[in-house]
C-alpha cells in the first residue's frame, strides 16, 4: 500500500541517495542560501538505516586514494565550516593529523568525516528509505511540473512525495560476472561491497581453515588479499585475474590534472569519439589498478613464501573463469590459462568478487520518465536532456563519465559539480532556461574561471 505524504506544496528538490555526491550538494545549496541565494526546501532519501560510506569495505588497511583537500567543499570554498580540516579541528586531531605527514586519511576516518557532515543535515534527510521509482505527474496538455518519488520504508510501506526537481545520486551497483549467476544470495560467494559483513559469517572467524578465491585485479582485490593474510592465519588465498600483473595506479601530478574542473570542460566539449579516446588514455588512473605500496606488500608476501617453501597463497594471473559450480559443498571454478589455453578446476570454501561496479541504477529509477528523456544524456550542468513537456529538471551525479570524463564517478569532482548543479537548479526552478556557458556556470557556482 502506498502512503501519500505529499505536503501542501511539493518539495523544491528531492535527492535520491545521500552519499558524498548529494551530501556535497546539500552543502552547496546551504552555502548559496547563506550568501543570499534561494533557500530550497530540499529532502534527501537514503536507503541505509544510518550514514555509512562503503562501511562493509573499511578494513584496517584501507586508505583514501585522493588528498584530504579534495573533500566535499574545499576546492570550491576553502573557508567552509564543512571542510575536512575543520572536522579535524572540531575533533581535536588537527595537530595529530599534521604529524602523520600524509595527504591521505584512512577511509575509516573519512567515513567519520562524512557522517559528521551528514549529521548537520539531519532535518533534511530520511534514512531507511529505498527509492523505487520516479513517476511523472501529468497535467492538462501533457505538461509535467511535478514528479512523484516513490520510496519504501523499513516497514515495507510505500511512501509517495512530490518534487519540483529530482537529483539521482545512487552510486554504483555491484558487478557480478555471469559465471556466478547461480550463486545469487549464496553466503559462500559475495561481492567485495559486502566484505566485512559476509566475512563475519565465515568459518575462518572461528579459527577454521578455509581456502578463499579473490577475483579481480584492482584496489579492492588487493585490500581483500592483505586483510585475509593479516587477519585470518588459517586462510589460504588465491588471487585470480585475467591480466598478467597487478598494475600500479598512475597518480602522478600531471596525470592528476585530468580530475580538475577545467578538464571536465575539455572532455564535454569534445566530439564523442575524442571523449572515448581520452577516457581510454587515462583508464589506468582508476580502473583495475592498485596503489604501488599494496603491490609491493603483496609481492613481498609471495616472495617470502618462496623463501620458506610454504605456499600459503596463490597468484593466478592470465586466468579466465569459464564456469562456477557447486561440488561436494564447495565452489568449483573452471579456469582457463589465457597464455597456454590449458584448463584446470579449483575448489574454494568462499569466493570474493572484487569485480567492480556498474552504473545503471538511474535508468531503473527513472524508467517511468523514459519517454520524456533523450536516452539519459545530460547537458554540461548534469541535467538530463528532455522534451519540453517535462518542466521538472532532473539531474544525475556519478553517471556521466562518457560525457564529463573519468572524474565523474570519483570524489575529486564533488565540490565543483555540486556548485554547478546548485547554480543551475536555482535558475531552472526560477524559470530561467537560457543556455549557460561553462565559464558562466563556474562563476555562478563560486569557482574561478581558470581552475
TrEMBL record:
Keyword vocabulary terms for this entry: FAD, Flavoprotein, NADP, Oxidoreductase
Signal peptide: none
Cofactor(s) needed: FAD
Listed Pfam families: Lys_Orn_oxgnase (PF13434)
SUPFAM superfamilies in alphabetical order: FAD/NAD(P)-binding domain
Residues in coiled coil: none
Pathway(s) served: Siderophore biosynthesis
Listed PANTHER family: L-ORNITHINE N(5)-MONOOXYGENASE (PTHR42802:SF1), MONOOXYGENASE (PTHR42802)
Family from the record: Belongs to the lysine N(6)-hydroxylase/L-ornithine N(5)-oxygenase family.
Protein name, as recorded: Lysine N(6)-hydroxylase/L-ornithine N(5)-oxygenase family protein
Lineage of origin: Bacteria, Pseudomonadati, Pseudomonadota, Gammaproteobacteria, Pseudomonadales
Amino acid at each position: 500500500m502506498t502512503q501519500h505524504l505529499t505536503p501542501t506544496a511539493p518539495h523544491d528538490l528531492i535527492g535520491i541517495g545521500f552519499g558524498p555526491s548529494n551530501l556535497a550538494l546539500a552543502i552547496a545549496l546551504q552555502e548559496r542560501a547563506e550568501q543570499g541565494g534561494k533557500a530550497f526546501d530540499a529532502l534527501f532519501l537514503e536507503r541505509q538505516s544510518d550514514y555509512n560510506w562503503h562501511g562493509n569495505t573499511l578494513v584496517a588497511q584501507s586508505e583514501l586514494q585522493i588528498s584530504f583537500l579534495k573533500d566535499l567543499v574545499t576546492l570550491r570554498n576553502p573557508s567552509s565550516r564543512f571542510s575536512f580540516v575543520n572536522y579535524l579541528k572540531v575533533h581535536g586531531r588537527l595537530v595529530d593529523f599534521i604529524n602523520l605527514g600524509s595527504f591521505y586519511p584512512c577511509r575509516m576516518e573519512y567515513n567519520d568525516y562524512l557522517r559528521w557532515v551528514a549529521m548537520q543535515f539531519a532535518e533534511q534527510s530520511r534514512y531507511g528509505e529505498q527509492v523505487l521509482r520516479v513517476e511523472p505527474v501529468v497535467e492538462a496538455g501533457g505538461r509535467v511540473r511535478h514528479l512523484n518519488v516513490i520510496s519504501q520504508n523499513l516497514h515495507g510501506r510505500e511512501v509517495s512525495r512530490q518534487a519540483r526537481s529530482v537529483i539521482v545520486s545512487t552510486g554504483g551497483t555491484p558487478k557480478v560476472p555471469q559465471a556466478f549467476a547461480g550463486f545469487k544470495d549464496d553466503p559462500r560467494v559475495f561481492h567485495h561491497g559486502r566484505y566485512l559483513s559476509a566475512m563475519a559469517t565465515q568459518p575462518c572467524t572461528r579459527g577454521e581453515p578455509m581456502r578463499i578465491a579473490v577475483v579481480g585485479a584492482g584496489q579492492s582485490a588487493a585490500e581483500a588479499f592483505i586483510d585475509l593474510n593479516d587477519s585470518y592465519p588459517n586462510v589460504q588465498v588465491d588471487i585470480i585475474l585475467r591480466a598478467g600483473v597487478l598494475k600500479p595506479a598512475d597518480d602522478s601530478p600531471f596525470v592528476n590534472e585530468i580530475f580538475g574542473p577545467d578538464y571536465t570542460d575539455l572532455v564535454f566539449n569534445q566530439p564523442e569519439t575524442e571523449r572515448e579516446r581520452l577516457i581510454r588514455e587515462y583508464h589506468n588512473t582508476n580502473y583495475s589498478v592498485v596503489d604501488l605500496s599494496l603491490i609491493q606488500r603483496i609481492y613481498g608476501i609471495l616472495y617470502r613464501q618462496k623463501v620458506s617453501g610454504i605456499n600459503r597463497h596463490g597468484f593466478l594471473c592470465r586466468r579466465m573463469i569459464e564456469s562456477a559450480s557447486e561440488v561436494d559443498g564447495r565452489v568449483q571454478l573452471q579456469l582457463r590459462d589465457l597464455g597456454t589455453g590449458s584448463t584446470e578446476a579449483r575448489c574454494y570454501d568462499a569466493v570474493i568478487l572484487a569485480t567492480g561496479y556498474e552504473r545503471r541504477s538511474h535508468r531503473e529509477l527513472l524508467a517511468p520518465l523514459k519517454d520524456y528523456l533523450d536516452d539519459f544524456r545530460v547537458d554540461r550542468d548534469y541535467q538530463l536532456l528532455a522534451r519540453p513537456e517535462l518542466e521538472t529538471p532532473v539531474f544525475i551525479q556519478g553517471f556521466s563519465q562518457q560525457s564529463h570524463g573519468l572524474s565523474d564517478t570519483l570524489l575529486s569532482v564533488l565540490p565543483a559539480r555540486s556548485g554547478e548543479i546548485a547554480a543551475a537548479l536555482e535558475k531552472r526552478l526560477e524559470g530561467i532556461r537560457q543556455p549557460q556557458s561553462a565559464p558562466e556556470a563556474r562563476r555562478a557556482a563560486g569557482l574561478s574561471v581558470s581552475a
